[in-house]
Design a protein that fits this description.
single chain; mainly alpha
Amino acid sequence: MWPISTCRFEYPHHPVEGGVWWYYMFQLSFYWSLSILQFFDVKRKDFVEMFIHHLTTIALLCFSWTCNLTRAGALVLLVHDFADAFLEAAKLFHYAKYSTTCDIVFGVFSVTWVVTRLGLFPSWIIFSASVEAPQLVPMFPAYYIFNGLLSILLVLHVIWTYYILKMAFFAVYANKDEEMRDTRSDSESGETDNEIEEEDVEEEKVVEHKESKGALTNNKTVGEIVGLPAGS
């Protein structure tokens, strides 16, 4: 909660506390695992963007650790982790079949995502690194690399914000009878086109049978729309 300029005072003589050391090590191992496991997971439309994100994050962690910019690095991690907590909670409620709670938590996630990743991240983190830092600390090549990687993350955030808002739009305005899936992928389980078409035919038969008996159609929730996107 201190002024972010504190990250530059007395640089580079910043001792790394134990909590920050563990924070860095857990995050680095986590993103290494994601970058590898991504090739064995379901291929989504944002596969390339996700892979770039993982590599960029790993590079940021390594550069900030090497240059002892751990104070700024920890703030970058914190800003990004804040929204992810609500995303994972929404997934859990979806799997537990708490549809209403899932929708509410997903709404909270959407708001926190926009505030932290499109608000605080560019106006607080990137502004400080690119404008305030040169006024307090002599610039060196790693700063340009650091700021370039932060800019790449911001571009990726804009792309994913589009997906999130598109999901929210379908959640509110899509027709009840529409098949609503993750806007980033054609199917959630990596099914082939023929399998999907066969399932659609079977679903249509079931719906027609229910309608003939006056059965009510089910309302779709946010969790049913997309299965929620993977953490970023």
